[in-house]
Amino acid sequence: MAAIKVLAIDGGGIRGIIPAIILAELQKRLGRNLHQVFDLIAGTSTGGIIALGIGTTANVGQPYTPGQLVRLYVENGAAIFKKNFFTPAKQLISPKYSPDGLEATLARFFQSTEFNTALTPLLISSYDLQSQLPFFFKSHRIAADPSFNWKVAAIARATSAAPTFFPPLHLTKGVEDYALVDGGVFVNNPAMAAYAEARALYPEFEKVVVLSVGTGDRHDRITYAAARDWGLLGWAKQIVPVFMDSVSEAVDYELKLIPGCTYHRLQVANLQAGEAEMDNVTPENISHLQATAQAYVEANADRITAICAELSEGRGSNMPGIGVK
Length: 325
Known about the structure:
13 helices
């Protein structure tokens, strides 16, 4: 029996350049759009933006290519993470950045595209502060309940509202309303959530292939001597990368042990301090992230070839009866 194929893309701010370049190589080798290969695409934060870009018709009726998403980061990173003289002091009492640059970029990029244009089932993670529960945007729920058909730009804003960086997004659904933040607070690597969703969507399939693409593993280490005296301010500067990294590593461990799941992880190792920052949008760092991703692709050419061979037959299912294209 054919296998269900799942793509999961991590969060990581401007480091989204890395998975976009890796996915561009995969698409080139496979010779077809990624929505034609994967039965479900999941993303968190910057990975959610990439998933929405490659998985909907936001590009004048077509999906964006991963290469076009690289340009999104290169050309708009400085506007999204717009710093000024007051930024260091501001982050102590309010979100580090205004959402204006992010929202303007997402509005321009996704325009009025709706979630029901998903070309394969999409799973985009967020977290609702009001209910204190995970909140998943699922395109495959729209056929049964059209109220789940939000604008793609709003979904992208919700999944990328990283705590301390951007304010939450206030979203409504009928009489319900949500205060949504970055899904990275619980699934920065959404591969496990994507696996579970794929199992629910395709119960008749015994085998699932999961490809998880990361935004780079941080090399910086926090010593006991550095952390032992931290209070609120000390932890506030470190807690976001700490919980995002730990969640991703836990998912790696769990998926490798599940029978019937073939798990592939494409992850750049040992990002240095400057390039590991989610909001380092200097031209030098953006160029460095591109070079790092390209070097990873070249160094892992044989592994990527093997993964593409496993994916080459395309989707295992056409998802009948749920209204996806």
